[in-house]
Amino acid sequence: MPLVGGTDGFGAWGACDPAEPRNRRSRSSIIIEGPSGKRLLVDAGPDLRAQFLTHGVGRIDELLFTHAHADHVMGVDELRSVNRVLGTAIPAYGTAATLQDVARRFDYAFRPAAPPGFFRPALEAREVAPETVVTLAGLPVRLFRQDHQVMETLGLRIGGFAYSTDVIRLPEASMAQLEGLECWVVGCFQRGPHWVHADIATVTAWVERLRPRRTILTHMGPDMDWAWLRDNLPPGIEAGHDGLRITL
């Protein structure tokens, strides 16, 4: 938020109050840092450069794509600066279908690395699959299936933390992977039903079943005003915001 447009050209805010800084939201992405200090970036959306600069992120060690929609991959070009810091290609994980789609759009990013200048991003494709555990940023990451209506996306769990963006339905096997959570970050696009994203009622039903200690909403649309959510969400569910840090 905001969307491009608005009567004054400074954005279409929907129901969101422009004076509330937590309503200024960039495209969904997270960084997970393990005990060793290694960092995993989950998704690389078109706001990646501004996100890194705003929040003091100068380096990541690995990248995981949850799926290949534009708002999750179109920041790939900005990663060439990270290549210069690392001096090598960045391991990029995703399902076979996701990596194929990303490589179709950014074929040059998957060519052999060209240090030291890295005039283009350099990614090293590493295929993963749901229902498996992979080691990323030195942490065991369990991947599970999510239904995004138009495609399957990857959810991930690390210990008592899970991340589920771009989902409208969760298979029973995936629900089982989400039991006993301390913190769940989950996509919730709007107040009422949406055809490819979960809404508040859907997420609330999941939370009532799974009982995570803390649930944080992400990937929110123009009717998800931060103050309204603070005042109306059930206990244990809260709205996320850019720059939010979670320590587990």
Descriptive overview:
With 248 residues, the chain is an alpha/beta fold. The protein folds into two domains: 29-128, Ribonuclease Z/Hydroxyacylglutathione hydrolase-like (Metallo-beta-lactamase, Chain A, 4-Layer Sandwich), CATH 3.60.15.10; 129-237, Ribonuclease Z/Hydroxyacylglutathione hydrolase-like (Metallo-beta-lactamase, Chain A, 4-Layer Sandwich), CATH 3.60.15.10. The chain is built from seven helices and twelve strands. It has a seven-stranded mixed beta sheet with strand order 6-7-8-9-10-11-12. Helix 1 links the parallel strand 2 (39-42) and strand 3. The longest helix is centred in the C-terminal third of the chain and has 11 residues, at 200-210. Residues 26-219 form the Metallo-beta-lactamase domain. Pfam families: Lactamase_B_2 (PF12706). It comes from Humitalea rosea. This is Phosphoribosyl 1,2-cyclic phosphate phosphodiesterase.
